[in-house]
Amino acid sequence: MTTLTGRRPRWGRIGLIVYMVAAFVYLFTPVVLVIVFGFNDNRGRFNFTWVGFTWDHWRNVFFGETFGGVPGVFDALVSSLRLAFLSSLGATALGTFIALALVRYRFKGRSAANVALFLPMATPEVVMGSSLLALFIALRFPLGFPSLLVAHILFNISYVVVTVKARLQGFDRHLEEAAMDLYANEWETFRRVTLPMIMPGVFAAFLLGFALSFDDFIISNFVAGPTEVTFPLWIWGAAQRGIPPEVNVLGTLVFLTTVSLMLANILWQRRRA
Amino acid sequence: MTTTAAVTGRRRWVPYLLMAPGGLWLLIFYFVPIARLVEVSLQSGIFPRYRFTWEVGNYLRLFTDFLPHLQRSLLYGLGATLIGLLIAYPLAYGIAFRGGRYKNLLLVLLLMPFLMPFLLRTLSWRIILADNGPVVEALRTVGLLGADGRLLATGVAVVAGITYNFLPFTTLPIYVSLEKIDRSLIEAANDLYASPVVAFWKVTFPLSMPGVVAGSLLTGIPAIGDYVNAELLGTPEQYMLGNVIQSRFLRVLDYPSAAALSFSLMLAILLILIPYIRATGTEDLVA
Amino acid sequence: MRSVPEELVTTAGIEAVPAVRLDHVTKKFGDFTAVDDISLEVGENRFFALLGPSGCGKTTTLRIIGGFEEPTAGVVYLHGDDVTGLKPYRRPVNTVFQSYALFPHLTVWENVAFGLRRRRFDDAEIRRRVAEMLELVQLTGRENQKPGQLSGGQQQRVALARALINHPRVLLLDEPLGALDLKLRKEMQIELKRIQQEVGITFIHVTHDQEEAMTMADTIAVMNHGRIERLGSPTEIYEDPKTEFTASFLGASNLMEVQVVDGSAGRVALPGGDELRVPAGRLPAGERKAKVGVRPEKIRLVEPGSAVQGNTVTGRVVDASFIGVSTHYLVKTAPGQEMAVTVQNLEDHRFRPGDDVVCVWNPEHTFVVR
């Protein structure tokens, strides 16, 4: 890429750089506000105007009577983590198999399968959530953690397939033939060559699924039932009554954790390459 | 021809075996519910006794009772998509063509805000657009808003929230297709007497169209179906179809009309999608 | 068309049990016939080349021998055993892939040891043989590097070592030098030939480069449209290509349509009436027309009226280009008919465009093509 050195800077180029700075400021402003308002010494139930700086909410989150400082929020976090982990694990397994079939084999119904996998991604979440709820009610399927798990695996599958497929398509088919040529049978070929090669893609798919599940509100809101409360559902409920700044603190913690995980994953992938 | 898989007779069932678990999941929990949605949408009666009666009237209510919601869904959804494209294109262009060795860092920064929980970053817009907040103050000063003009609880706030929340879905596909463009094509255009501006409009932009189309679909579809932004940043005056579906299903318990609205939304999106699928084929959809 | 005539097959079949035998092998991909009823024998310890343009079926033939494609019809024998339905990992053959197909997540050492490990050799034996093999291909010291850290030539040698370490009875090479630059390719041609002679394994080598095939192979099969056009030693197929495709794919040729005057005596006539002689027996019996050819470097140019023996054709020089080791002439011999002539620069005298000349060559160098 050309750089600015040795050339007369052009106005278009400078304008673009200024624009990009502005765009990133725009992208980060809401995030910064969530973090900052975790330090707000707010009055009353609402936390939308800046009053003054305080560590109280952070102290309350870690040293309050329950972790999180607000009743119910700890359980909601645990519920979300459990749901995200299990649903992403399930979707990663199912989706990886599908991706293998789609990339490695030519079979009847393959393009129909591609459309069928694309449709869930093109379906608005209200439609998916409402249709699933209607089914669960008709089947008398228990609403709560089981129905959430089913729904989250469902909406994650397509994203896993896309992610793993991209990785599979990028690698030379001859590698598997070479393994078979060198006396590895089908299982050994998968275990020694295919799986290690697509592992970064599988892991990325797992992380994506985890993030999508952890942050899902709309579909969860339909199928959670009256008793199971995930973190986004808890925030939603709190937002009706007025959100305590402790939620901002927890949001900040979630943000910092996921950012560190994302950066760690990038560094790990880079070292492998 | 040399890359064709050597599928011999007894291995023909392998792909089906691999597809089976996930495929069944999709069939039972996606296609069956959508089909049932159609069935429910044609029922009539009073909760909890609904019977299948070919009640087409449920669909007609979309154009009578819920016409304003339909209009707002389209207006806000498409508006947010358009504004999103305008914001995203230069951003994607900047990362792809001027990112240099910071390209990966910029991509990480682009995605990072979306690791903040969705509802919290949406609620942040209440602070930004608050009546005594800096944005409103500024617009009042320059006269774009009257002295008692406000942004929060208006369509502007809803569109702002939707635009922001779906921005990565708009930007990434555009970035990908810009990144794919062979740089020598632009040099060739310059060599053939095209100024940078002409080269952009005649070469770069047309070649990035697949990304623009994919980005608008990925943004437009969830945007039209969204109800969270209208709920958190608007008032019932700004409610969209999603809000109606949500409340009919979860509060009013009027399943037939909710199902009819839900399926109409799905149909509308399929109508938008089909020409796109026809044009690009199925292979690129999930890739 | 016909299947390969018996006499062609026997030129390659040397021992009683050939290393590789293909018996009427056909491979179709849908409507496309990639390999069309090929029968072929490759003897023990041969360096055998499958030569042809892209899409001629040479790679598919190789993949059928390796077990990566199952033939639509026909039987594959390795050392007399029918292996047609056998998986690649059950065949005593190994492959060097065009793209090398080195496992990027494994080190050089692990790549080379891959086959022995799958066959459950004990660790000490594996270590000994890998060290030996890396020495043979001059990669000692690179054991712990990943393939991505090696140059193209080094990757090529890893691919070779990874295959050879298994002591295959046949080694298959799919355009193994295609990705290397010209200089390295020339070096590797010699190197590969040396290794083949050292290890005494049958090599089957797929290439589209005629010079590469002729440098290395002792037997060449020229393929086109899924069939074998010509099979024989490099000299045989160059001097007597027998088919028009082989004549033009292997080097340059001057081809001429002729009338047969006396087939058994090898006398033919050009459209202008000039008579040429062809070695007896090369003309197909009972045909009235034929196509004959001669290589440009077999022709001498002399001034009209010189006393000469052999086949002669008169003409006028239309183009002369000096290219160092030789001079290339283009001689117009009749309306619409030109002859390419390559003359070594032994004498000072050079013809110029416009000069009248006579092209002269030994009748023995005239071949007949179908």
Report on this model:
The complex is a heterotrimer of chains A (273), B (287) and C (370). Chain A is mainly α. Chain A is built from eleven helices and no strands. Chain B has 14 helices and two strands. The model of chain B is unreliable at 1-10 (pLDDT under 50). In chain B, strands 1-2 form a two-stranded antiparallel sheet. Chain B is mostly helical and 287 residues long. Chain B is globular. Chain B folds into two domains: 13-55, no CATH class; 66-286, MetI-like fold (Orthogonal Bundle). Chain C folds into two domains: 6-92 and 168-239, P-loop containing nucleotide triphosphate hydrolases (Rossmann fold, 3-Layer(aba) Sandwich); 252-369, RNA polymerase II/Efflux pump adaptor protein, barrel-sandwich hybrid domain (OB fold (Dihydrolipoamide Acetyltransferase, E2P)). In chain C, 25% of the residues lie in helices and 33% in strands. Chain C has a six-stranded mixed sheet with strand order 6-7-8-3-9-10, with helices on both faces. In chain C, strands 13-12-11-14-20 form a five-stranded antiparallel sheet, with no helix packed on it. In chain C, strands 15-19-16-17-18 form a five-stranded antiparallel sheet, with no helix packed on it. In chain C, a hairpin with a 2-residue loop joins strand 1 (20-29) and strand 2. The longest helix of chain C has 18 residues, at 182-199. Classes of the chains: A mainly alpha (273), B mainly alpha (287), C alpha+beta (370).
Could you list some keywords that capture this structure?
heterotrimer, A: about 270 residues, MetI-like fold, C: about 375 residues, Rossmann fold, OB fold (Dihydrolipoamide Acetyltransferase, E2P), 20 strands
* Element-level helix/strand string of chain B: HEEHHHHHHHHHHHHH
List the total number of helices of chain B. 14
* Level-2 CATH architecture of the largest domain in chain C: 3-Layer(aba) Sandwich
Q: Could you list the spans of chain B in which at least 5 consecutive residues all have pLDDT below 50?
A: 1-10
Distance between the termini of chain B: 22 Å
The total count of strands of chain B amounts to 2
- What is the CATH superfamily label of the largest domain in chain B? MetI-like
The end-to-end span of chain C amounts to 12 Å
